[in-house]
Specification:
The complex is a heterodimer of chains A (312) and B (296). With 312 residues, chain A is mainly alpha-helical. Chain A contains 13 helices and no strands. In chain B, strand 2 (133-136) and strand 3 form a beta hairpin. Classes of the chains: A mainly alpha (312), B mainly alpha (296).
Chain lengths: 312, 296
């Protein structure tokens, strides 16, 4: 069996192991671990767009909100109709999986809708269109009363457990790694390295960008679904520009186009505010300083040990 | 008809403010080819500077208002020059993406520092200029709206004079046409870029004070939405194009005001982004811009 597949299996087994012993783990630690897993999904998937493909999306939280709302709608509206009042754990889990898929696919469709017109644009413009998209989504959810409007959606069933989070985190890393290291996936890196040269040898760079965008949006939607069923309450304001920036900082800190580094950065940036209270309070000041200093001093990221810009 | 004209008046006065901010985006893009994300925070700092000066000058007076306006413009010009010197100059020649990330960082830093020092609670804005309402056949025009339009027109004319008639303006245009050739004929690029940042930031500060006068409350995140909308205005007119920015600002202000007056009013903040996506789809160079092909 190829190495990535073995890695995925091992990670799934480990996730189940942690889940089986989860009642012996301090609930607070478990919550932090869930937060880490969700951030790993978000950062690793965004890295496919912002790192490997060399585009710049500022709307990841927008896709996350699509997934969060859609999956919550599925479990809250469909669940009671299918299973009545009480349902078995098996029914709950299969409903949750379906809801997550619906959320992921919904976000992917949103990604396609945003991506097709805007991916013809270069760097700065794409960043602004994705930012604008995030704002439009927020305004739409704020005005959509069936899903709670500006007050948000409450009473989402707590279906998220540590197994689902870790399993999806592993699956995200697996998918992105396999995609980038496949023959097809060289096209992402070619698009990042030199778009004009990539086009000159016949690569359809717009298509590559769209694929990267849609895949990343799918996983952001999954992360949103996990987040919603973990917090049990979601508001449109919770998926604002600052949330997108947080994910972008993880990608940049870890080193764009470096999955291991991005995972480390996601873990670090989730743990830091938990461990150091001042960090939580001044988080945004710290993040913004980090962005400026990294770009001036170490644009390849903190955890990137390679000194040249190429990836392999 | 009265309703229509009233909305048009409100739209033009909002659009004039967008135009002032959009000019800064467009001028910086012209000389450096990047989008200065921190521009909306310069706008916010300008409004706050006007607020602090406004507490020391007599309210409702023309001279006090002009003093606050000039002070805010000067302070923001310095801020713009400092930002360029510390954050953007070390990255000259770096990939666009790195500069863009830095600009986002500067924007967030200013916003959060402002929240730290000035607090997040909105503050009521003092009435700097003499206040009155004029009734022109059913259309109500406030003196603040008149101030906005007059100040904007004056600044636009001054800007036109600087860009077209002065030496530094000629250097700015040369730099935006071809940076290498401009350097070769002896233009000091660093000075011109600093000047451009100072000029653009001063206009943003004027926009900030005027905006705060019309929507009389300020807070550290007040810059985000007007800043983004002004950027859309710059793209709408054709980024890098100075008359385009003014035109785009006016158009966007009018569009937003009319949407705000319709049953779609809750979507008014989304409309600018819809305009952005449409313009990028159908006329990416903007209304007055010229389409260029990227060469290797």
């Amino acid at each position: 069996m190829p190495r990535p597949h073995l890695g995925l299996l091992a990670a799934l087994a480990a996730a189940y192991g942690i889940f089986a012993f989860s009642d012996r783990i301090d609930p607070y630690h478990l919550d932090v671990l869930v937060g880490i897993g969700i951030n790993v999904i978000l950062a690793v998937s965004l890295n496919l767009v912002n790192g490997y493909t060399g585009q710049f999306s500022l709307g990841h939280a927008g896709f996350m909100s699509v997934g969060a709302y859609l999956s919550a709608a599925v479990t809250m509206l469909l669940g009671p109709r299918l299973f009545g009042g009480d349902s078995s754990a098996w029914q709950q889990n299969s409903l949750f999986l379906a809801a997550l898929m619906a959320g992921g696919l919904g976000a992917a469709v949103a990604g396609l809708l945003v991506g097709v017109p805007s991916l013809r644009l270069k760097g700065d413009y794409l960043a602004l269109v994705t930012l604008g998209f995030g704002e439009i989504i927020r305004v739409i959810f704020q005005n959509f009363e069936p899903l709670g409007g500006a007050l948000g959606l409450n009473g989402i069933p707590a279906y998220t457990n540590i197994f689902w989070v870790l399993a999806f985190a592993a699956f995200t890393v697996f998918t992105v790694a396999c995609l980038v290291h496949s023959t097809y996936g060289r096209g992402f890196i070619a698009t990042q390295d030199d778009e004009i040269a990539a086009e000159a040898i016949g690569l359809n760079t717009t298509r590559y960008k769209t694929v990267a965008f849609v895949v990343a949006a799918f996983f952001a939607g999954i992360a949103g679904g996990l987040y919603g069923h973990f917090k049990q309450t979601i508001t449109p304001g919770g998926f604002d520009f600052n949330r997108s920036i947080e994910i972008v900082v993880m990608v940049i800190l870890g080193g764009m186009g470096n999955t291991i580094g991005v995972i480390l950065a996601a873990v670090l940036l989730t743990l830091l505010p938990e461990v150091l209270r001042p960090v939580a309070e001044y988080r945004m000041i710290l993040y913004s300083l980090l962005l400026i200093l990294l770009m001036i001093v170490r644009p390849q990221g903190l955890f990137n040990l390679r000194f040249w810009k190429t990836h392999h | 008809m009265t309703e229509f004209l009233q909305q048009l008046v409100n739209g033009v006065s909002l659009g004039a403010i967008f135009a002032l901010i959009a000019l800064g985006y467009t001028m910086v893009y012209g000389v450096l080819r990047f989008i200065n994300f921190a521009h909306s925070e310069v706008f916010m700092v300008g409004a706050f500077t006007g607020y602090f000066i406004g507490q020391h000058v007599p309210a409702h007076s023309m001279s006090g208002g002009l003093l606050a306006l000039a002070g805010a413009m000067a302070a923001s010009a310095v801020l713009g020059i400092v930002i360029e010197r510390l954050a953007y100059r070390p990255l000259r020649g770096a990939p666009t993406l790195n500069v863009l990330i830095t600009a986002i960082g500067v924007s967030l830093l200013l916003q959060n520092l402002a929240q730290y020092f000035w607090g997040a609670t909105p503050r009521p804005y003092p009435e700097l200029f003499p206040a009155a309402n004029y009734n022109l056949g059913g259309i109500v025009v406030s003196s603040n709206q008149v101030t906005v339009v007059v100040v904007t027109l004056a600044l636009l004319l001054a800007l036109r004079f600087i860009v077209l008639r002065t030496k530094i303006g000629t250097a700015m245009r040369a730099l935006s046409l071809n940076p290498k050739a401009a350097a070769l004929v002896g233009i000091n690029i660093d000075v011109v870029i600093s000047f451009t940042f100072g000029l653009g930031s001063a206009l943003a500060a004027a926009g900030g004070v005027l905006y705060a006068l019309n929507y009389p409350s300020i807070d550290p995140i007040m810059g985000t939405l007007p800043g983004l909308k002004a950027f859309v205005a710059a793209v709408l007119g054709g980024i890098g194009n100075i008359p385009g920015a003014a035109l785009g600002g006016l158009l966007l202000g009018v569009i937003e005001t009319f949407v705000n007056g319709s049953e779609w009013s809750t979507y008014k903040d989304a409309i600018a982004f819809a305009v952005l996506i449409l313009i990028l789809l159908f006329r990416p160079a903007g209304l007055l811009g010229r389409f260029t092909v990227e060469k290797v």
